C-alpha cells in the first residue's frame, strides 16, 4: 500500500463496531429441565412377572408338548394321523412317474435347443437370379479379366 492510501484510511472515520451477540442453541439453553415442569404419567401398567399371560401360555404349551410326546403312539402303531396322511397324500409311484415324464420333456427340449444353437447355414452361395450367370457383356472387359464360368452349373431348388 502506498503511504497516501494508508494515511487516508487512518483519517477516515470508522463505523462503530457492534459487539456480536452470542446466539444460543438448544444445547446451550439456560433453562433448567426440572421434573416439576412436566405432568406426571397417569397411565398404569400391569405388573410384570412370571404370572403374566405370556408366561402362562408358554408353560401350558410346554406341558402340552411333553404330554403329547409321552402319550403319542409309536411309529409302528396304526393311528388316525398315519391313516390321514396315507389317504390324502399322493403316493410315491405317482411322483416318480411325474418326475420321469418331466425328465423326458426336459431332455427333448435341450436337444431342440442344441440343434438350433449348433445349426449352420449350407455352404452354398444362392443367387437371386441364377439365369444371369450366362449373360455378360462382351464389351468393356479388359484382356484376361473375363473369368472362366464354363464349369459353373446352376442348381434348382430341388437339386440340393
Q: Which helices and strands, and how do they pair?
A:
Layout: H1 3-11, H2 53-71, H3 80-88, H4 92-118
- Please report the number of helical segments: 4
Q: Over the alpha carbons, how many angstroms does the gyration radius reach?
A: 50 Å
Largest sheet: none
Strand content: under 5%
Overall pLDDT metric: 79
Number of strands: 0
What is the helix content? 40-55%
Instruction: Tell me the span between the first and last alpha carbons.
Output: 100 Å
Computed structural class: mainly alpha
The backbone outline, from C-alpha atoms, is: flat
Q: Give the helices and strands as they follow along the chain.
A: HHHH
Flag low-confidence runs: none
Task: Give structural notes.
It is flat and about 115 Å long. The model has no long low-confidence stretch (mean pLDDT 79). The chain is built from four helices and no strands. The longest helix is centred in the middle third of the chain and has 27 residues, at 92-118. It has 160 residues and is mainly alpha-helical.
Amino acid at each position: 500500500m502506498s503511504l497516501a492510501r494508508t494515511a487516508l484510511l487512518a483519517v477516515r472515520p470508522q463505523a462503530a463496531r457492534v459487539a456480536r451477540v452470542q446466539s444460543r442453541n438448544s444445547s446451550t439453553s439456560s433453562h433448567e429441565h426440572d421434573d416439576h415442569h412436566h405432568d406426571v404419567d397417569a397411565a398404569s401398567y400391569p405388573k410384570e412377572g412370571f404370572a403374566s399371560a405370556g408366561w402362562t401360555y408358554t408353560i401350558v404349551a410346554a406341558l402340552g408338548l411333553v404330554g403329547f410326546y409321552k402319550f403319542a403312539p409309536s411309529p409302528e402303531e396304526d393311528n388316525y394321523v398315519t391313516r390321514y396322511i396315507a389317504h390324502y397324500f399322493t403316493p410315491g409311484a405317482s411322483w416318480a412317474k411325474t418326475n420321469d415324464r418331466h425328465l423326458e420333456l426336459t431332455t427333448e427340449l435341450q436337444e431342440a435347443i442344441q440343434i438350433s444353437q449348433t445349426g449352420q447355414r449350407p455352404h452354398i452361395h444362392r443367387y437371386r437370379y441364377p439365369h444371369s450367370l450366362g449373360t455378360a457383356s462382351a464389351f468393356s472387359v479388359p484382356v484376361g479379366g473375363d473369368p472362366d464360368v464354363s464349369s459353373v452349373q446352376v442348381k434348382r431348388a430341388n437339386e440340393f
